[in-house]
Write a structure and sequence with these properties.
Chain A: It comes from Myxococcus llanfairpwllgwyngyllgogerychwyrndrobwllllantysiliogogogochensis. Chain A: One of its GO terms (molecular function) is oxidoreductase activity. Chain A: This is FAD-dependent oxidoreductase. Chain A: Keywords: Oxidoreductase. The complex is a heterodimer. Among the domains of chain A are: 69 residues, Arc Repressor Mutant, subunit A; 182 residues, FAD/NAD(P)-binding domain (3-Layer(bba) Sandwich), CATH 3.50.50.60. Chain A is of the alpha+beta class. Chain B is an alpha/beta fold. Chain B contains 9 helices and 27 strands. In chain B, helix 4 packs parallel to helix 9 and helix 6 runs parallel beside helix 7. The radius of gyration of chain B is 23 Å and the shape is globular. The chains are: A alpha+beta, B alpha/beta. At the A-B interface, strand 1, helix 1, helix 3, strand 3 and helix 4 of A face strand 7, helix 3, strand 12, strand 14 and helix 8 of B.
C-alpha cells in the first residue's frame, strides 16, 4: 500500500506529522513525541531534516522556531558491554550539563496570542501534576483555569521518567495513593480517549542486604493490609519470574504482580486535550517571571506574555518549584537532583516486570515497544537543575544491569537522557496551603514518583479546592511540617 | 542491482548464508552490498506495517538494512564486512520476510494506524490490542548468549581531535601534521576521503590526501565517535574502535575538537520511498565506485549538483537511466539530456522497485521502468556532536536542513569546537578542504 515515509525506523508517514500538527503539536520536540519520529534505531539521522522542512513549509512553525530536538547520545547504537568498559571514578561527583543553547527554549516558539487577563486558578507547570489537577478541577466544575508551561508538554520529569507505576511503598499514604492512581490509569483511555499502554507485569524489588530485606518484609505486611498482593520471593522464585536473572549478591526479593509500566507521554496529551475540551487554557512555551503579592495573597502571576490576575495559584513545577517559589519569597526545602536514564534497541518481549535493586538504585523494565528502559541513581550526584548526559552513567548502569542480566551485553543503547527528581527532606510531597500566602497552593516534592501519584493526588486536590471539604492529605504533607519537625520518612525511593 | 561485468577483483570470493541459502559475496565488502548484488534487495520487514525493506543509505544512518547476523539482532549490514559462512536472517516477519502475514497491517491501514487513539477505552478490544501490540512490537530477539568482555578501554590525550576523514578532515590533518601539532583523526568508514572516495565525482575535486603523509599513528579508521562528554578530567570524545578481537572504547581528551563528519543521506518523503530498490544517491555512488555494484536501469530523483554528478558517473559505467527528475526547479543547462523538473515522485513495485513515476512540470504524469530509484539530495549535516558540545545549530529553510553555525575560520559558539565541511552547510569538496585547512590554522592559534 502506498505510503510516504518520513521516518522509516518507526514507520511514521508525512501524513502522521500533519496529523500531529492538526492536534496542536507543531514544534519539533512535540511532533517527535507524538508521532515517534526520530525515536528509532537511527535517532533522527535520516528523518529530522525532512520533518523540520515539512513543518516549516506547511507553516506549522516559523523558520526561527525550527529547532532540532535535543541530541541524545550515543550517536550510534552502542552495545551495553562496550559502555560498561568505560572507566568510572566513583570517588568523584558526576559533572557535565547541557549547553545553554540546548537547555533554553527558542523565543520564537512562544505563542503570539494574548493570555487571559484573569483566571480563577493559575497552575504553574504543565507536567502531569498541573494538567491532571486542571482536568480534575474542570470535572468538578471549575473551568476558569490557566495552566502555564515553560516548554513543550513532556519537557520536564513527566516526559523523562521510565514509566514505572507501583503500589510497593513504605508508608500507608503512598500505598493508597498509588493504588488509586493505577485504578485511574486503567480507565484513562476510556475517560480521555488516548491509549497509555498500562502493562501490569509487576515490580520485582531485589535486596542486597538484610536491612533492605527487612524493609521488603515490612512492606508485605503493610501492603497486604491495604489489599496489595505483594509477596516475598526467594532468589530461585525471582529467577522464575525473570528468566536469566542472576540475583548476584541479592538475599531477598519482593514482587507485586499488579505493579507495572505505562507510556508516560499520552497522559499529558490526554489530560491536556481533556482540559481544552472543557475550556481550560493550556499555555506552553510561557515562562513565569514573577508575582504580584498584597495582603498575604498572590494577586497576579507575571509571565513573559503578560500578567494574569487570579484567585488561586498552584505551584506544580516539579524540580523547578523551589526556583519559582523564590520569585514570591517562599523558601521550599526541595532540591533538584539529576537522574539519568537510557533506552535500548527494541526487542521482542523477554522481560515481564520492572526489576529494581533497591540498594544501588538500579532499575530496568521492557517498554511496550520492546526497549529496555532503565536508570540508576548516583550517590555522588550534586543538587542542581542539570539535565546533561554522562558516559559515567551509562557505564555504571551497563555494569549493574549486566551483573543481573548477562545476556543483555550485546543489546545496543539508542539514547540516554536525564530528568530531575524533586527531592524533599523526608521523600514525601509538599501539598496544600503555603503558610503566610494563603492562596498559593503547593503541589510538588514528589521525589521521582510524582508521575504515578498524579492521577490520585490531582483527584483529591481538585475536590479539596472546589468543595472546601477537609482532606488529611493536605495537612499531612503541608509545607509546615518541615518547620514543625514532624517528618515520616518514605524509604522506598529508587536511586 | 548487480555486480558489473567489468568488476575488478576486490577480494576473495566467499559465500554467506541467508536463511539457509548460499549467497556469493566478496570477503570484506559490506554484506548488504553482497545481498543486493546477488538480487536480494529485501532484507527486512518494517517495525509497524511490515513493509518490505532493503538497504537505503549505506551509511548507518537509517534502519533499512538491519538483520540478525550470527545470532545478534539489529546489525547494520551496510557496515558489516562479509565473512565466509556468516548467518543472516531477516527480522520482524512471520513466517518469512517474503511471505509475511503481518503485511496485511499495511493493507488494512492505508491511511496509517493511529496507535494513540485506536480502540482507546473500548472494553475488551483495548486489552486484546495491548497484548497483540506487545508481541508485534520490538525488532529482533534478545541474543541467547552472554556477551564476551570487549577489549579493555583506553584513555588518550591529544591537542586536537578531528572527527571525520573526508575532504575537510584530511586537509586539516595535513595542516596539523605540517605544523607539528599532535592530533588524532577518527574515521567511521574503513576508508578515508568521504565523498571524494565514494560520492559522485566533482569537477576541481582535490586529490585524496595520502594518509602516509600524515603524522604517524594519527589516523584511526573504523572508529565511530559515540558522543562528546564531560567528566572530572575534562571534555572527551567516546570512540568505539573496531579491532579484530572486538570493539574497544577510547576516551579521547583534547584541547580542541575539529568536527568534520559530513552528513547523513536523508529520507525524502514520497510514495513508497521505503521500497527495496530505493537508494540514497550516496549509497549508489559508493556501491559503484567501491564495489562495482550498480542497477541495470536507474531513475534518479532529487536536486543539487550531486544528482547530476551521479547521473554522469552511472552512465560512464554503463548504467541505463530512465529518468532524471529535479524536484527543486528547472535543471541547470547542460545538466543531463534526460533531466526535467518534476514533482510527486513515486516508486512502484511489490517487493522491490520495478518502475518510477512523476509529474513533469510540463505535460502529464510519466511512468518509467527501472530496477532502482536513486534519491540524490544534499546530505543532512551530522550536527549532533557539535550541538552536544555547545555549538549553535540553525535551520536553513532554503535547503531544508540543519547546519552548524561557524565563521569562515571554523569557529563555533563553543570555544573548543570548530567545524568545517558539509557540517556547516554544504559546498564542494574543494570548499570543504579549504575550510578544513583554515579551521586547523585557526584553532592552532589558540592552543596553549
Amino acid at each position: 500500500m502506498s505510503k510516504s515515509m518520513i521516518c522509516s525506523c518507526e514507520d511514521v508517514t508525512a501524513d502522521d506529522v500533519r496529523h500531529a500538527v492538526s492536534r496542536g503539536y507543531c514544534d519539533v520536540e512535540s511532533v517527535k513525541r507524538y508521532t515517534g519520529f526520530g525515536t528509532g534505531i537511527c535517532q533522527g539521522k535520516s528523518c529530522l531534516s525532512a520533518v523540520a522542512a515539512l513543518l516549516e513549509k506547511e507553516k506549522a512553525l516559523k523558520p526561527d522556531a525550527v529547532v532540532p530536538f535535543t541530541p541524545r547520545p550515543p550517536l550510534f547504537p552502542t552495545e551495553l558491554r562496550l559502555l560498561a568498559s568505560a572507566p568510572v571514578d566513583e570517588s568523584q561527583p558526576p559533572v557535565g550539563g547541557l549547553p545553554q543553547d540546548v537547555d533554553a527554549f527558542a523565543s520564537a516558539l512562544r505563542p503570539e496570542g494574548p493570555l487571559p487577563a484573569k483566571a480563577k486558578v493559575v497552575i504553574i507547570g504543565g507536567g502531569i501534576m498541573g494538567l491532571a489537577l486542571a482536568y480534575n478541577l474542570a470535572r468538578e466544575g471549575e473551568t476558569d483555569v490557566v495552566v502555564l508551561e515553560r516548554g513543550y508538554l513532556c519537557a520536564g520529569a513527566s516526559g523523562r521518567n521510565g514509566g514505572g507505576v507501583r503500589m510497593q511503598w513504605g508508608t500507608p499514604a503512598l500505598v493508597e495513593l498509588a493504588k488509586r492512581s493505577i485504578d485511574l490509569m486503567k480507565g484513562f483511555a476510556r475517560d480521555l480517549g488516548i491509549n497509555v499502554w498500562l502493562r501490569q507485569g509487576g515490580y520485582l524489588f531485589l535486596a542486597r542486604t538484610d536491612a533492605v530485606a527487612k524493609r521488603l518484609e515490612r512492606n508485605v505486611t503493610l501492603h497486604n493490609r491495604y489489599g496489595v498482593p505483594t509477596r516475598l520471593v526467594t532468589p530461585d522464585a525471582a529467577r522464575d519470574i525473570v528468566p536469566g536473572l542472576t540475583m548476584k549478591g541479592c538475599v531477598a526479593a519482593s514482587f507485586n504482580p499488579e505493579d507495572g509500566v505505562i507510556f508516560p507521554w499520552p497522559f499529558l496529551w490526554g489530560y491536556a486535550q481533556g482540559c481544552k475540551k472543557k475550556g481550560v487554557r493550556v499555555e506552553t512555551y510561557t515562562d513565569v517571571t514573577g508575582f504580584e503579592v498584597s495582603g498575604g495573597q498572590v494577586r497576579k502571576v507575571k509571565t513573559d506574555r503578560g500578567d494574569i490576575a487570579c484567585d488561586t495559584v498552584v505551584l506544580a513545577s516539579g524540580a523547578w518549584s523551589p526556583e519559582v517559589a523564590k520569585l514570591v519569597d517562599v523558601q521550599l526545602p526541595n532540591e533538584p537532583h539529576r537522574h539519568e536514564i537510557l533506552s535500548t534497541e527494541p526487542l521482542k518481549p523477554f522481560l515481564g516486570p520492572l526489576v529494581s535493586v533497591l540498594d544501588s538504585g538500579l532499575y530496568f523494565s521492557q517498554s511496550m515497544r520492546g526497549e529496555i528502559v532503565g536508570g540508576m541513581g548516583d550517590p555522588k550526584e550534586p543538587a542542581g537543575l542539570n539535565m546533561g548526559s554522562t558516559l559515567r552513567f551509562v557505564s555504571r548502569f551497563a555494569r549493574a544491569l549486566m551483573e543481573q542480566m548477562p545476556h543483555v551485553g550485546h543489546v545496543k543503547v539508542l539514547r540516554q537522557w536525564a530528568g530531575c527528581y524533586d527531592v524533599t527532606p523526608d521523600n514525601n510531597p509538599i501539598l496544600g496551603r503555603t503558610p503566610g500566602l494563603d492562596n498559593l497552593l503547593q503541589m510538588s516534592g514528589f521525589v521521582g514518583h510524582g508521575f504515578m501519584m498524579a492521577p490520585a493526588v490531582a483527584e483529591r486536590m481538585a475536590k479539596w479546592m472546589v468543595t472546601g471539604e477537609s482532606d488529611e492529605l493536605f495537612t499531612r504533607f503541608n509545607l509546615r511540617r518541615f518547620a514543625e519537625g514532624s517528618l515520616e520518612r518514605e524509604d522506598m525511593i529508587i536511586g | 542491482m548487480r555486480r558489473l561485468p567489468d568488476a575488478s577483483l576486490r577480494g576473495r570470493a566467499i559465500t554467506v548464508d541467508l536463511e539457509g541459502e548460499s549467497i556469493p559475496a566478496i570477503e570484506g565488502e559490506p554484506v548488504a552490498c553482497s545481498l543486493v548484488a546477488a538480487g536480494e534487495p529485501m532484507l527486512a520487514r518494517s517495525v509497524k506495517y511490515h513493509r518490505p525493506r532493503g538497504p537505503y543509505c549505506f551509511a548507518a544512518a537509517c534502519s533499512h538494512c538491519l538483520m540478525r547476523v550470527d545470532g545478534l539482532p539489529n546489525v547494520y549490514t551496510c557496515r558489516t564486512p562479509a565473512r565466509e559462512g556468516m548467518k543472516l536472517e531477516r527480522q520482524n516477519a512471520y513466517p518469512s520476510a517474503k511471505v509475511d502475514v503481518f503485511e496485511t497491517i499495511d493493507w488494512f491501514f492505508p491511511k496509517g494506524l493511529d496507535h494513540h487513539e485506536m480502540f482507546a477505552g473500548v472494553p475488551v478490544a483495548e486489552q486484546v490490542m495491548a497484548k497483540v501490540a506487545r508481541q508485534l512490537a520490538g525488532l529482533g530477539l534478545l541474543p541467547k548468549e552472554a556477551a564476551p568482555t570487549p577489549p579493555e578501554s583506553r584513555t588518550v590525550r591529544t591537542r586536537v581531535a578531528v572527527v571525520g576523514a573526508g575532504a575537510a578532515g584530511l586537509a586539516a590533518a595535513r595542516e596539523l601534521t605540517e605544523r607539528g601539532i599532535p592530533f588524532l583523526l577518527f574515521e567511521r568508514e574503513d576508508h578515508v576521503g568521504g565523498r571524494l572516495a565514494h560520492g559522485a565525482p566533482e569537477r576541481d575535486a582535490p586529490e585524496i590526501t595520502d594518509v602516509a603523509t600524515l603524522a604517524p599513528a594519527s589516523l584511526t579508521t573504523r572508529a565511530t565517535v559515540l558522543g562528546l562528554y564531560d567528566d572530572e578530567a575534562g571534555r572527551f570524545l567516546a570512540v568505539g574502535v573496531w579491532e579484530p578481537t572486538g570493539t574497544r572504547l577510547l576516551k579521547v581528551y583534547a584541547e580542541r575538537f575539529l568536527l568534520t563528519p559530513g552528513g547523513h543521506p536523508p529520507m525524502v518523503p514520497f510514495e513508497n520511498n521505503d521500497l527495496p530498490g530505493v537508494y540514497a544517491g550516496r549509497a549508489a555512488s559508493l556501491l559503484l565506485r567501491r564495489h562495482d555494484v550498480a542497477p541495470k536501469v536507474a531513475a534518479l530523483v532529487g536536486w543539487g549538483d550531486e544528482l547530476y554528478g551521479l547521473a554522469r558517473l552511472l552512465e560512464e559505467r554503463g548504467v541505463k537511466l530512465s529518468a532524471v527528475v529535479d524536484l527543486k526547479g528547472p535543471p541547470p543547462s547542460g545538466a543531463h539530456a534526460l533531466a526535467v523538473e518534476g514533482s510527486e515522485p513515486k516508486a512502484h513495485g511489490m517487493r522491490s522497485v520495478s518502475a518510477f513515476s512523476f509529474t513533469p512540470r510540463e505535460g502529464s504524469r510519466r511512468k518509467v521502468h527501472c530496477d532502482a530509484v536513486l534519491v540524490s539530495v544534499p546530505v543532512s549535516p551530522s550536527f549532533e556532536l557539535a550541538r552536544q558540545g555547545g555549538a549553535k545549530v540553525s535551520f536553513d529553510a532554503g535547503r531544508g536542513l540543519f547546519r552548524v553555525e561557524a565563521d569562515a575560520d571554523g569557529r563555533t559558539e563553543a570555544p573548543d569546537i570548530f567545524a568545517a565541511g558539509d557540517l556547516t552547510g554544504g559546498g564542494s569538496a574543494k570548499d570543504a578542504a579549504a575550510a578544513g585547512r583554515r579551521a586547523a590554522q585557526t584553532l592552532v592559534g589558540g592552543l596553549s
